[in-house]
Amino acid sequence: MEPDWSRLLTETSERKAASEHWCRIAGEMDELQILSPSNGHALQRLVLAYLHYDRCSLEVGIGGLVTAKNPDNPKSIERLSVHYQAMREAEKTTERLEKQLGLTPGNRGKVGKVARKRERNAGADRFLGAKE
User: Fold this and answer.
1) H or E element, residue 80
2) Which residues pair with 67 in a beta bridge?
3) In sequence order, what are the beta bridge partners of 85?
4) Which of 1, 9, 76, 118 is deepest in the core (most CB within 10 A)?
């Protein structure tokens, strides 16, 4: 069920990080009995949002929170870094997806468990055949 990260990400380190995020989250969801195949794409978007946040966070750490004004333009002003703005959007996306997937402690009770197919075994099945 894990996506082919090589089709989505070019850097090896990001593919490795994506796989680690996926395994950690999918394991937690499976343990809580809320993992289903229909959650796959939402989980993929969550992992990509984590990576996007990490990328932008690194850029903000290197370049700073504020973009300097352009010295060639007298009307130019300092602005918040586009990386910081993208980082905030990624944070909102991750919060929304974590809530939808039931990953936050406050929302775990609001997400229904995935119904597991249970094998019926009755004594009469040996004589009458299994009932479907």
Assistant:
1) strand 79-80
2) 79
3) none
4) 9
Residues 6+ apart with CB under 8 A from 60: 81, 83, 84, 87
What would the 3-class secondary structure string for 14-70 be? Answer: HHHHHHHHHHHHHHHHHHCCCCCHHHHHHHHHHHHHHHHHHHHHHHHHHHCCEECCC
Q: Report whether 54 contacts 17 (CB < 8 A).
A: yes
30 vs 49: which has the higher pLDDT: 49
Structure confidence by residue, pLDDT tens digits, 86-117: 999 999 999 999 998 888 876 666 665 655 66
Report d(CA 81, CA 60) in Å as an integer: 7
| pLDDT tens digit sequence for 7-38 | 999 999 999 999 999 999 999 888 888 888 88
Query: For residue 32, what are its two tokens?
Result: 């809580």
Partnered with residue 80 across adjacent β-strands are 66
- Which residue in this structure is represented by tokens 């402690």? 105
DSSP state at residue 89:
H
Nearest to 57 by CA among 18, 21, 83: 83
